[in-house]
């Protein structure tokens, strides 16, 4: 067997670089930062669960009552100043 020349090694390396460059968009979708964040978000979501609220929710009623009792300031018409 003859030894492989440096030109053949250079051509092989160039082919690998061209292949990586052509496939980069697909590789970055699978292994990029957004894909990593999406996998992490999916893992966190698996531990969440939906809790159904009751019809007679005391907290919602107290918030509504507090909103109704807030002092109201009437808006001034800025056009009168000019």
**Helical percentage:** 55-70%
Q: Count the DSSP helices.
A: 3
Largest sheet: none
Stretches with pLDDT under 50, minimum 5 residues: none
Global geometry: elongated
Structural class: mainly alpha
Straight-line distance between termini:
96 Å
Order of helices and strands: HHH
| β-strand number | 0
Question: What integer value in Å does the Rg equal?
Answer: 32 Å
Short description:
62% of the residues lie in helices and 0% in strands. It has helices at 6-31, 33-46, 58-68.
Describe this structure in words.
Helix 1 runs parallel beside helix 2 (33-46). The radius of gyration is 32 Å and the shape is elongated. It has a domain at 1-46. The protein has 82 residues and is an all-alpha fold. The termini are far apart. It is built from three helices and no strands.
Helices and strands in order:
Layout: H1 6-31, H2 33-46, H3 58-68
Helix pairs in contact: 1-2
């Amino acid at each position: 067997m003859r030894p492989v020349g440096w030109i053949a090694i250079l051509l092989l390396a160039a082919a690998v670089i061209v292949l990586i460059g052509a496939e980069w968009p697909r590789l970055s979708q699978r292994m990029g930062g957004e894909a990593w964040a999406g996998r992490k978000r999916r893992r966190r979501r698996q531990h969440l669960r939906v809790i159904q609220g009751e019809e007679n929710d005391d907290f919602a009623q107290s918030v509504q009552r507090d909103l109704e009792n807030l002092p109201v300031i009437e808006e001034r018409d800025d056009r009168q100043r000019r």
